[in-house]
Amino acid sequence: MQLYSFWRSLATFRVRIALNLKGIVPDEVIDIDLMKGRQREDAFHAVNPQMLIPALVEDDGTILFQSLAIIEYLDELKPNPPLLPGDPRGRARVRALAQIVACDAHPLLVPRVREYLEHQYRLDEPQRMAWCRHWIAQALAALEAHLGHNETGHYCHGEAVTLADICLVSHVAGAKFFAVDLAPFPQVARIADACLALDAFARAHPLRQPGAPATV
Amino acid sequence: MQLYSFWRSLATFRVRIALNLKGIVPDEVIDIDLMKGRQREDAFHAVNPQMLIPALVEDDGTILFQSLAIIEYLDELKPNPPLLPGDPRGRARVRALAQIVACDAHPLLVPRVREYLEHQYRLDEPQRMAWCRHWIAQALAALEAHLGHNETGHYCHGEAVTLADICLVSHVAGAKFFAVDLAPFPQVARIADACLALDAFARAHPLRQPGAPATV
Questions:
Q1: Is residue B21 a contact partner of residue B14, using CB atoms and an 8 Å limit?
Q2: Largest CA distance in chain A
């Protein structure tokens, strides 16, 4: 199994957490430097024509893409520990919390969007940072509101780690990159801390990957 | 079961298709007029604090949100006809195709983003339309590239309708709203036509809902 990765990619961070939780170690981790536009080169285009990471390549050549789809695949491949609750309503809640991050927020922050705002509309760096902070805070508020639900426990859904926690932690890492204050979102901050106390989360962190700076 | 809906919402269009395919008829469809900002009023805030539609309320009061999570819930509740393939790799491919639309493209087009571009950065109507068309075309290109795969059949994945087709059709409806030319994306256009020939898709279409104009 090969994982196409980049230290700063929050979507790849999610897949690394899932691999760690499942105890799956890819044979190879291939770095695609998004800062240098390596995702747009022919070699990677053949892997994922959408030119986005993560991508996971199985030994038979099957290519998997999109972080949530990859994580559910890993969960089906190796069901223990489960990353989704056992009941349909619980699964729906966990998937929906994950989608607040992976659908409503993260796609607005990625390099291609920031570059488009810069080159097409001449938004300067502070304006682009304000854009990112706005959408990060919107999703933090949405998560915080939904975490007021009585099914929230030590983690987003009860006492076991799920896909929702994986996405929440990736979003909090993004909030820290962009210096968004977590104080108004105490449940989110509490759960992120609880997750990052686990080795599977901690060693998947962007700042612990090859090529990462010491701090952001 | 109650569905919170609005004719123009592409995410709600997806849920309507799934309900039709499953033969589930909600007891009530409650209109939330996004053009008038009704999603931000207290009555709906209590249903979904994220203030987004669709939301589906079960008879016991359980509230489901996020279109992909709702559709997978409906698929688990009533497994026939299935909206995901039977094998993990097929499911991963279908979910990933769906996420090209629901994660990478649609969140960039929604009213709150267009309003933010208008009010925060003073982008005028043609600039905002160009923004929407750009991201719609990017996702059409990504879908088209991935549909070159040998598992593509009459529909996105083989000969049965899946979650990927539901998302593809919602994206094509968005492309038509924003007058994006489908000619460079023949596989996408072919599959959208094949789906819209089915009654479950056709009668879920935005332009066939109460309050919709005759054309866009």
A1: no
A2: 49
Which residues on B lie below 8 Å from A9 (Cβ)? none
Within 8 A by CB and 6+ apart from B61, the residues are none
Partners of A25 in beta bridges:
none
- Picking from A96, A108, A134, the nearest residue to B108 by CB comes out as A108
Contact state of A76 with B91 under an 8 Å Cβ cutoff: yes
Residues of chain B with pLDDT under 70: none
A66 contacts B100? CB cut-off 8 A = yes
Strands B63-65 and B55-57: antiparallel
Domains in chain A, please, with CATH?
Answer: 2-81 (3.40.30.10), 88-202 (1.20.1050.10)
CA distances from B139 to A144, B109, B201 (A): 30, 12, 21
Closest chain A residue to B138 measured between Cα atoms?
A: A50
Q: Nearest CA to A203 among A3, A1, A7? A: A7
Helix (H, G, I), strand (E, B) or coil at A48: coil
Which pair of tokens denotes residue B58?
Answer: 């079960």
Predicted confidence (pLDDT) at residue A79 exceeds the cutoff of 80: yes
Q: Is the peptide bond before A82 cis (omega within 30 degrees of 0)?
A: no
Q: Do B88 and A102 touch (CB under 8 A)?
A: no
Whether residue A108 and residue B103 make contact (CB cut-off 8 A), yes or no, is no
Residue of A nearest to B62 (CA): A89
Smallest CA-to-CA distance from B135 within B166, B94, B107, B111 is with: B107
For the entire predicted model, the pTM comes to: 0.97
User: Does A104 contact B52 at a Cβ distance shorter than 8 Å?
Assistant: yes
Per-residue pLDDT reduced to its tens digit, B59-88? 999 999 999 999 999 999 999 999 999 999
CB burial of B24-54 (b: ≥16 within 10 Å; e: otherwise) equals eebeebbebebeeebbeeeebeebbbbbbbb
Interval A109-143: pLDDT, tens: 999 999 999 999 999 999 999 999 999 999 999 99
Looking at beta carbons, which residues of chain A come within 8 Å of B52? 104
Q: What are phi and psi of B64, to 5 degrees?
A: -110, 140
Please state, rounded to an integer, the average pLDDT across all residues of chain A: 95
Place of tokens 């109507």: B125
Residue A216, pLDDT > 80, answer no
Peptide bond into A49 cis (omega under 30): no
- Chains A, B: CB pairs < 8 Å: 123
Task: Name every chain B residue with its beta carbon within 8 A of the beta carbon of A69.
Answer: 92-93, 95-96, 99
How far, in Å, CA of B71 to CA of B92, rounded? 15
C-alpha–C-alpha distance, residues A44 and A2, integer Å: 13
